[in-house]
Amino acid sequence: MVTESKRTDVIANNIANAATAGFKKDVAVHREFQPMLIRRINDHEDSSGGVSALGTDIGDVTKFKGFGANANERPMVGKLGMGDYISEIAVDHSQGAYESTGNAFDLAIAGQGFFAVQTQDGIRYTRNGAFFRNQNGVLQDIRGNSLLDTAGNAVTIPQDVTPERISVGSDGTISVRGANEAQPQILGRIQVVQFNPQALRKQGDNLFYAVDNAQPQPATGEVLQGIIEKSNTEIVTEMVELIHNHRLYEAGSKAVMTQDAMLDAAVNQLGRIGS
Description:
Blueprint: H1 2-16, E1 26-32, E2 36-39, E3 44-45, E4 50-53, E5 56-60, E6 76-80, E7 84-91, E8 98-100, E9 107-110, E10 114-119, E11 122-126, E12 132-133, E13 139-140, E14 146-147, E15 166-168, E16 173-176, E17 185-189, E18 192-194, E19 200-204, E20 207-210, E21 217-218, E22 222-225, E23 227-229, H2 235-274
Helix pairs in contact: 1-2
């Protein structure tokens, strides 16, 4: 029941972020506790060393599977499951669908890679490419984190440059087109990096941070302009999983109630009759 409750929280968070650009859904990974080996006990033993189950002689106990030299060992019944637990909240880094916005400052990554942004906690990484230009010309996300270039500086576009003149190449190169210029003016190159998925952890606010001193590598993905990547959460799938989890939780709850009723009957009814 505890496992299904935690899994429900994960699914609820995925559904809540179904409309968040660049969001990567979580998956609750469960693992079984070590099962317990159980043997039959309290059988009647005859003088020959044979064991009688419910009064029926079954012969030499050493013939049972799982018996060793010790004839006092009991027949092995099987394994008793001890339940499971959530061992990890993994992140599904699969590609989300694209949505065309026509905004020159909206960016997406096709394939592997993350945008590097400067936050109050240091450099963080995100797939959310919904950026805008602030009053100083710096490209920022909705929370004020600055988009970084390959030199580690904030990407800055002069205010006198209109969005229609901005062009972002597949490698992240930002250039300004001008009618009187033979060649576009290069303003910089957006920092797009990638990691081993196991080296990233979610921080919140759609941001990731690197663990174990993992170093970023140049991304193999391509930058797309005027497009944002939508969440990879599928509402229908998550709703089906939510219903399934509620059914499992309900079944566990009924099992606990049944066990409680059996204990109540054993203590308050059978105990009274025996006394």
